[in-house]
Amino acid sequence: MTDGMHYAPIARAQAPVCAPGDFTFAAMSLDHGHIYGMVDNLVQAGGVLKYVYDTDPKKAESLQRRHPLAQIANSPEQILQDPDVMLVAAAAIPSLRCDLGLQVLAHGKDYFTDKTPFTSLDQLHQARQAVLTTGRKYACCYSERLQNESAEYALELINDGVIGDVIQVLGVGPHRLNAAARPDWFFRKALYGGIICDIGSHQAEQYLAYSGASSATVTMARATNFANPDYPELEDFGEFSVVGDNGSSGYFRMDWFTPDGLRTWGDGRTTILGTKGYIELRKYVDLGQQLDQPARENNVYIATQDGEEQHQVTGKIGFPFFGALILDCIERTELAMSQKHCFTAAAICLQAQQMADLDR
Amino acid sequence: MTDGMHYAPIARAQAPVCAPGDFTFAAMSLDHGHIYGMVDNLVQAGGVLKYVYDTDPKKAESLQRRHPLAQIANSPEQILQDPDVMLVAAAAIPSLRCDLGLQVLAHGKDYFTDKTPFTSLDQLHQARQAVLTTGRKYACCYSERLQNESAEYALELINDGVIGDVIQVLGVGPHRLNAAARPDWFFRKALYGGIICDIGSHQAEQYLAYSGASSATVTMARATNFANPDYPELEDFGEFSVVGDNGSSGYFRMDWFTPDGLRTWGDGRTTILGTKGYIELRKYVDLGQQLDQPARENNVYIATQDGEEQHQVTGKIGFPFFGALILDCIERTELAMSQKHCFTAAAICLQAQQMADLDR
């Protein structure tokens, strides 16, 4: 079977997609560390980080140390009113992400937020209106696909027809709680939105990407606190299922139960079942890998009519979303991710969270 | 981490549990090949197979060749009326399993059927009544646990508290269709009962076993034919979710989409998430194992607070159910599996199938 490796990825160059100065952006509301990856990847794809800003100067300084050519802005207004700034990247407290986005759009700039993009359907509605009114983008860094090479490679394989028509997507997203290192907002439901709204947003996005469905109905949702009485508003477990408008389905489980003994933060998996085969991603570790080695990421397993294949794609795929987003901002296209896709993923996780909340 | 292997199984002897002649049984209605494993394991555990019978003499002869001391009965009556026979093992067409069981119980013998034990809730109701009336057992070979060493080992680990309280059970049961080799009844829904009723019965049983729930509510169920128009009554995909009376939940997917290139018939998995760790069973193959090797079965992966462990338990656990069933039949105990557990698993898969049927 080792002879028949049809689907080994061809490593691709990660070159800037534009000339220096073609795409200038800023970073503000640095509440979640995800902002580092978002900024790093935009810079690597050709973006110029002009400003960083946070009400907490330490957070701004910390990001600036990594990007020393950026200036620390004196105020949000300095960023919002600078015509050089085409896009604002931010990782605010989740419940504040929409308000910031509405401001950014109102100032004629595109917005790129950490996930989850909203904590209520009302926020989503407001953002939809603002996008229509302003013509600007409300983009979201659904990082469990956009910053994961195995997840991006799976999409290529599916789009190439390797597993036929997608029937089902099954995603498991365990995370290490690490409670002591988390900010206060992390444990307040009104601020983080609930576990399905939060880490379930990744899963909803991956469902749409892999299944090709353009919308989906939530068929089951549940969220609860099993074992963290000290944090009564934390949901440490959530799950939901969907049926898409193309007949495919999805089931997703998310939790804060990664045990301390696992060698990485979470054993995230995605299994995509198609009519002609299936793909399993062991994204951050493979429990079957040698025990005394560091976690091996981006494991892609494929089974088709022709055989089985195993690919480890770290460093081979890169993060094509970021260059595509920059070009979308410059050229006003939607090749990285359509606004509809971004918002539909948000709608699914918000609807599932709502169903889970009603059921408690 | 390799130093800290706490959970390596101690290989146990598979000795007969009774003296020759203490437990005599018969096998009839040999419609599904599962009867071979059921009989072999009862014999290995100390049972004596006195008769085999099927309306098709070839099927009876084939099983007799494997157990040459057994006689081919002249009729079902010869078996049912022989006071030596304590139990009848059978793998009838699913829709006929209950009728046969009712006859067996009415003749004062215990019944051991291939899964699925019923194709309707009405049958289950009749069997419940018959068990109460006769005091006999209506047992079922839920083989994806009872004939799987990794699955039985997982139960031991859970019962030992290795992963704390069980929060969720996630089971995936893909199977190779192999349509040409299947009998006609396999494709007639009234006879096989639907994919959730059929292969979902394994999943319902494993949910109860691992979660410790004593009952469960079906929260979502779906079954459909995605890609087999030549067999319109075949459901090639099914899924359902449950919430147990102890607050745990389960999600299960079953399908006939194992691609021809997979080195075994199905990549069955069970993942059990607990408050203190999790266990993943890669039951029949590990996609990450060396490609040019035969499928390695019974892979047990454990992650806890203390670290990760990997155990391959083929030949180490055996199938303790069969000896326990024999002793239960002799001593009128319920140590192998309670009648309530057996019937509750059936109820769950039948209720899920009904929900899926109503939704089509």
Mind sketching the topology for me?
The structure is a homodimer of 360-residue chains.
Chain A: E1 24-30, H1 34-44, E2 48-53, H2 57-66, E3 71-72, H3 76-80, E4 87-91, H4 94-106, E5 110-114, H5 121-134, E6 138-141, H6 143-146, H7 149-159, E7 166-174, H8 189-192, H9 195-198, H10 200-211, E8 216-224, E9 237-244, E10 249-255, E11 269-274, E12 277-282, E13 299-304, E14 307-312, H11 320-331, H12 339-358
Parallel strand pairs in A: 1-2, 1-4, 2-3, 4-5, 5-6, 7-10
Antiparallel strand pairs in A: 7-11, 8-9, 9-10, 11-12, 12-13, 13-14
Radius of gyration of chain A: 20 Å
Number of domains of chain A: 2
Strand order of the largest sheet of chain A: 8-9-10-7-11-12-13-14
Biggest sheet statistics of chain A: 8 strands, mixed
Low-confidence stretches of chain A: none
Number of helices of chain A: 12
Oligomer: homodimer
Could you name the CATH topology of the largest domain in chain A? Answer: Dihydrodipicolinate Reductase, domain 2
Q: Give the strand content of chain A.
A: 15-25%
Residue share in helix of chain A: 25-40%
Order of helices and strands of chain A: EHEHEHEHEHEHHEHHHEEEEEEEHH
The CATH class assignment of the largest domain in chain A is Alpha Beta
Coarse morphology of chain A = globular
Considering the protein shown, what is the CATH homologous superfamily of the largest domain in chain A? Dihydrodipicolinate Reductase, domain 2
